[in-house]
Each structure stands twice: as C-alpha cells, then as structure tokens.
Write a structure and sequence with these properties.
Elements: H1 2-5, H2 11-24, E1 32-36, E2 38-41, E3 46-48, E4 51-56, E5 59-64, E6 74-77, E7 81-85, E8 87-92, H3 101-107, H4 110-126, E9 129-134, H5 143-152, E10 160-163, E11 168-169, E12 191-192, H6 196-208, E13 214-217, E14 223-225, E15 228-230, H7 237-249, E16 254-258, H8 263-270, E17 274-277, H9 283-292, E18 296-297, H10 300-308, H11 313-336, H12 356-363, H13 368-382, E19 400-404, E20 419-422, E21 425-428
Parallel strand pairs: 1-6, 2-7, 8-9, 9-10, 11-12, 13-16, 16-17, 17-18
Antiparallel strand pairs: 1-4, 2-3, 4-5, 7-19, 14-15, 19-20, 20-21
This protein binds zinc ion (ZN).
Zinc ion (ZN) binds at residues 91, 93, 135, 345.
C-alpha cells in the first residue's frame, strides 16, 4: 500500500501531473457574489431575505441582505432558493456501494474499490456534502489516504475528508469474516487488535499511513432478538481509554461504532469523540455525553434502508423492530438533551442520496433548525473544522449550497440541492 502511494513516475507522467497541478493551483479567480431569495444563519436560525455572500478566493468575505459588489465580481443569481453552509456527513463509507457488503470487500480489488470511491466522493459532493468523515474503508486499508490527498490537490472532485483507514476490531468481532469457510482464511474487513497494546500499535500504523482519526468497533454483532437488543461489548473501558490516550498523543481522536450498553457507557467513560449508531444509551451514558460533549450520530438512513430492503420476511421483521426501538430511544435522547451530529452510514445505499438523514431526524422528533445545527455546527466541531466550516460567516471557507424553498418549513429540500460551492469554487450550478 505504501509503495502504491509513492509511485515512481516517468518524466512524461511528471509533466502531465505538473499540468494538472498547475490547473488545480492557478491563482484565485475574480470575486463571486451569490444572491438568493433567502440565507439561513444556522447558529441563530435567523433568515436573511434576500441573502448575499461575497466570496474571495477560498473564503467568505462578507454575508448580509446586501454585500459589497466589487467591480470585477461575478454575480451568481440563485433565484428562489435558500443559501446554507455545505452539508456535512459525519458517517460515510466511500469504499462501499449497494450490494452484499461482505462479498464486495472479498471479491473486488483495492484498486477497483478506490476507483469506485472516487465516484462516490464526487456523487456526495454534487449532492451538497462539502465535508465528510469516512468511518472505515472495510478492508481497503489506507487507500482512502490517496482519495483524500487527490481531492485536496484538486485532481478529483470530493468533499473535505477526515479518514480512518480500516476500522479496528477484535478477533471474531463485528467485522471479522465470521461466516466464511475457516480453511479459506478470508481476511477481516478491519484491522485486528485484541489488547490495549495492540490497539496502540494499530493506531500508530494507521496514523503512519495517513489516517486522520481512529474508528473502533465497540459493540457487535448487534442483534434484536425477541424485542431485546443484544450488543456485546468488544473492548473494556480501560482498553478504549488507552486508545483515546494514544490518539490524543497523535493529535487526533477515536470514534466508535457502539449500538448499546454496556459498550456505549465504556465509550463515554473513555472519552471518545462520538458514539455512532447510539441506539441504546443508559441514563449514566447520556449524563456523561452531556458533561463531556460527546455527540451521538444516530445513522437512521441505514436502519431505514435495511428495514425496507430485506431479503426475507424474517429479516424485514427484525430490522423493522430494531428501527422502531431506535426511534423510541431517540425520543428519550432528545428529551435528555444530549448533543447530536448527523451521519448517514451511506455506502450500502447509494452515494449522493444521504441528505435523507436530515429528513428522518426531523420525522423522528428533532426540530429542523436543531438538525441543521447538529449537521453543520456539531459536524464541523466533530470533524475538527470548528470556526472554519459549517456556518456562513466572514473568514470561513466558502462551502455553500442552495436548496429550493425554506428548510425550516420543509427539511427535505436538503435532498434537492441545486447549487454547490466548495472552497470558493462552483462545482454544481
Ligand atoms: Zn458505518
């Protein structure tokens, strides 16, 4: 993998690449003024009518009902739309596509999966997602380093990315190849770590290969049996705390897949950055999440997808029961006042369709403005870009989308993004 990332190039290839880089790094074009019927200030819920943004280079220079229109500025008229900060998805899998998950990671080569990941990144960006956290390549190792770096260098289109490489799992754990013929030695979709020392070693290895954070499976396999959620924990609180400490030493954080107790409690005690799926949270877990400001990332879209796209009636029944249980628990979590971020778990369902997550969070009990704040402000914080993205303010990166109508009246307009700007560049109009 490392050799793949540092190829030896022929002089011709170097010349060709130099041309691409020159294009990617050409001096910023003329200032741009965006004008639309509305602009939402996400922190306050204040709606400017009309709304204008002056963009210079990669950053927002001014925001208001009227902004300066410099002489050389290009005006982009967006009509009856609402300007919003770019959407953020805190839980994606660029290296997964619809179809049997286990089989695609076994049958498809890493180079092929990397090409599909490039397409996925483009589809997500064009749907309005200007920043994402990739929660594991599921067996493609650190191939996501190449995708992130190619996006950052302007070679391919995609969101700003935080990446984890493979997730980390125990032997026989959630993502191990448990159902295959043992004699075939099918590899796990994650990196093994069975002790605190092994967690530290794997974190160092992934960091060396370019990972920007650590993804750990803390529960699994997760099942609903006779109306009871069973979520065996994988690491003790002490083991998770060792992983968090090592991540902090490297200037980064740990995020966990954790469906329920006691793994969710161990994760909160250890001080992880987010608890993803978070279907079942005890009162003590929620108290700690509030105290330490650890957001839950519910990922309703994937549960909804499995509940409605099952291969058998039995599976549909148990997936449906799980979704119903999750919705009831979510209402308790909202009432408890824990922080939320927005993540869809896109990959098993088509890339570019995941704004449905915002719609589902409103349908199941949150107010539209709270969901937008969770997505943009909490999302920016979780991805380590607080004060840089997630709001339309002077000095922030110019990541801007336009949606038809008013998202405070109908959140589903976020599923129909009509304009996308990332880093001051128009990528969809
Ligand atoms: Zn996931």
């Amino acid at each position: 993998m490392r050799n793949l990332l540092r190829p030896v190039l022929s002089p011709i290839a170097v010349l060709a690449l130099a041309t691409v880089f020159a294009r990617a790094q050409q001096p910023p074009s003329a200032p741009i003024v965006l004008h639309a019927a509305r602009l939402l200030q996400v922190d306050t819920g204040n709606l400017l009518q009309p709304g204008e943004i002056l963009v210079e280079g990669e950053r927002i220079k001014a925001v208001g009902t009227v902004v300066d229109h410099p002489q050389d500025a290009k005006l982009i008229e967006l009509g009856d739309t609402t300007l919003l900060p770019g959407l953020i998805d805190a839980h994606v899998h660029l290296f997964l596509h619809p179809g049997a998950e286990d089989l695609q990671t076994v049958e498809e080569s890493v180079p092929w999966r990397t090409i599909l990941a490039e397409q996925a990144a483009k589809a997500d960006l064009l749907a309005g997602f200007t920043a994402e956290r990739d929660m594991g390549t599921e067996g493609a190792g650190s191939a996501d380093t190449a995708v992130r770096d190619a996006i950052n260098q302007g070679l391919i289109l995609g969101p700003r990315l935080r990446i984890s490489g493979n997730a980390i799992d125990i032997l026989g754990g959630h993502e191990d190849a448990n159902r295959f013929n043992p004699a075939q030695h099918v590899l796990s979709n994650a990196d093994y770590a069975n002790t605190a020392d092994q967690l530290i070693q794997v974190i160092r290895e992934q960091h060396k290969e370019g990972a920007s954070f650590v993804k750990i499976y803390e529960t699994g396999p997760d099942r609903m049996i006779d109306g009871v959620l069973r979520t065996p924990y994988q690491y003790t609180e002490a083991q998770l705390a060792a992983a968090v400490e090592e991540a902090h030493r490297l200037g980064t954080v740990v995020a966990v897949h954790a469906m329920g107790e006691p793994g969710t409690l161990y994760a909160a005690q250890a001080g992880v950055a987010s608890i993803d799926h978070a279907t079942q949270l005890s009162d003590e877990t929620m108290r700690l999440m509030k105290e330490k400001h650890i957001p839950a990332v519910p990922t309703f879209t994937i549960f909804d997808y499995f509940a409605h796209n099952s291969t058998s009636a039995t599976e549909a029944g148990s997936e449906g029961a799980l979704l119903d249980y999750k919705i009831a628990e979510f209402k308790k979590q909202i009432a408890a006042g824990i922080p939320f971020a927005v993540g869809s778990d896109v990959g098993p369902f088509p890339h570019g369709t995941q704004a449905r997550e915002l719609t589902l969070m409103v349908r199941y009990g949150m107010k539209p403005l709270s969901v937008l704040q969770a997505d943009m402000i909490e999302g920016a914080r979780l991805l380590g870009w607080a004060g840089q993205i997630g709001e339309l303010k002077p000095g922030y990166y110019a990541d801007v989308v336009a949606v038809p109508g008013n998202p405070l009246d109908d959140i589903s307009v976020c599923e129909r993004v009509s304009f996308v700007m990332k880093n001051g560049e128009v990528v969809r109009q």
